Amino acid sequence: MEAGALAAYWPFMAGLAITGIVSGVFAGLLGIGGGAIIVPALAWVLLVLGFDPEIVQHVAVGTSLAIIIPTGLSSARAHFSRGAVDMRVLKLWAAPVFAGTLAGGLMAGLFSGDALRIVFGVLALFIAANILLPFQQRLIGHLSGSSATHRIFAGVVGYLSALMGVGGGSLSVPTIGALGASMHNAVGTGAAIGVFIAISGTIGFIVSGWGVADLPPFSLGFVNLPALVLVGSLAVLCAPLGAALAHRLDQTALKRIFALFLTLVGLNMLWTAFGG
After folding, report:
1. 3-class secondary-structure state, position 275
2. pLDDT over 90 for what percent of the chain?
3. What is the enclosing helix (H) or strand (E) of 50?
4. I want to staple 96 with a disulfide (CB 3.0 to 4.6 A). Which of 2, 154, 161, 165 is the partner?
């Protein structure tokens, strides 16, 4: 590759590096998989670098799901070793969540960039509200014994997680908890479910983005390989910094910080989608 062509990629790579560092610190600080951080950050970087606004949200979502595969596997393995994965719930959720996420990924190409921003914005506000005023337990707690309820929610969570570009923890953990699991089991099982979401969602976004014009360099469908490697590795390396900071802060304060962050990001996504 010529020096001039290589130099043109440096802003792109620098933007990815910054995204990885910020995502890792905030993921460790807030105790999340990082998708809620990576998607808006990567989309913003791609917009600033001049890529087509119609595809940057797709690339951010697809790449975020791919990044979650290795981190999700590591997290799920750790929870499984501690006996915190409810195998009954996992068996109920695995197939429908995989199918729902794959459907979301395959259909992603049918949605405009603004449609995906609206999905992300609305769900971010929903998650923020549920953190501050947990209402799922009151709404669906009485359905905890129903296998059909588990499967229906699994499909819905998978589909929405694919369009949002997250591992599903922000949606699956409170749902599984509301359906009767302890918080430790909900978190552990949610981590395992996140692997199914990430794998099937990544496949869907690769297929739906295949052959799309004006993608960032070195993209496989809507999954950008440099972002996958650089953002993913730096996020993993920097997450302990955020985790160390988190232990110095009050947990209630952290929940409020996360809810505030999601509210601001959600409102910004909606503002952008509606032409603000």
Report:
1. coil
2. 24
3. none
4. 154
